[in-house]
Amino acid sequence: MIIVLRPDAxxxxxxxxxxxxxxxxxxxxxxxxxERTIVGLIGDxxxxxxxxxxxxxxxxxxxxxxxxxxLASLDFNPERTKIKIGRVIIGDTQVVVIAGPCAVxxxxxxxxxxxxxxxxxxxxxxxxxxxxRTSPYSFQGLAEExxxxxxxxREETGLPFVTEVMDTRxxxxxxxxxxxxxxxxxxxxxxxxxxxxxxxxRPVLLKRGLSNTMEELxxxxxYIMSEGNMQVMLCERGIRTFEKATRNTLxxxxxxxxxxxxxxxxxxxxxxxxxxxxxxxxxxxxxIAAGCDGLIIxxxxxPEEAVSxxxxxxxxxxxxxxxxxxxxxxxAIGRRL
Length: 337
Known about the structure:
Layout: E1 2-5, H1 11-23, E2 27-32, E3 37-42, H2 45-50, E4 59-63, E5 83-85, E6 88-90, E7 96-100, H3 107-120, E8 124-126, H4 144-157, E9 161-164, H5 171-177, E10 180-183, H6 191-197, E11 204-207, H7 214-225, E12 232-236, H8 254-261, E13 266-268, H9 270-274, H10 280-290, E14 294-298, H11 316-332
Parallel strand pairs: 7-8, 7-14, 8-9, 9-10, 10-11, 11-12, 12-13, 13-14
Antiparallel strand pairs: 1-3, 1-4, 2-3, 5-6
Helix pairs in contact: 3-4, 3-11, 6-7, 10-11
């Protein structure tokens, strides 16, 4: 349920509505826009149905949110969410580029990569300290040691970083180090992990599962947001189809469709979407043209020696060239890189 307040609604009237909703066991979410303030209500629909909200002073109208995802719905928050991470703002006019290796392998590797991607114009760093792998015998990440190396790279370059969490037991630890916590495709419907991540203040980058619909992605975002963390970014990273030419099928249509469904920022992962470094540039261009708010790209100083995803990682010189090409696309649609 959404309460749309009158333009002249006073602060005391808004406070009164919030207090009353809490008394009734409902959870209010206040969004103050340029022209209107709205109060979104989450809770027992029977209470909402029996309560004459439109007679409360300051209320203009009351609207029902029919979609199963409430907090993530564009109906719930008609203004686009902007997430501030240090000096970076995701969801604004700038297309934010997050770049770095699939996995943190050593202190020197992640610092060198951070320096190179910053020189090329990247706004944030990525790197996996905990690695979900198909095989239990593959490299699983350096865990807290990797987080410390990422923190060192941030100290050296000033780039905030995003890294993945895989286990509810590690959420607190990752939140101590990371600027953004990633929940990967394999854990998109790990509801216990989603709820735990929602209890912490760090922004969450939520990747779409290999075989999940857009509505299921938004319902997963709802789990995080229902715990109080409204700073969620959705990531399209390719879905599993019958096609075998690419690692996954990057669903470019997800960008405009999600923009029509939610106020949350949309990030695209062209590295996992294609699975080969030579397809990163064209897929990135397509994503920007379709309206994404950011890209997350794998870059490694020596891809042939990478412990994971070397075939889809760009060398720093190629990443530099891609960044130059992407600037043209961003400017063409009235945005900037």
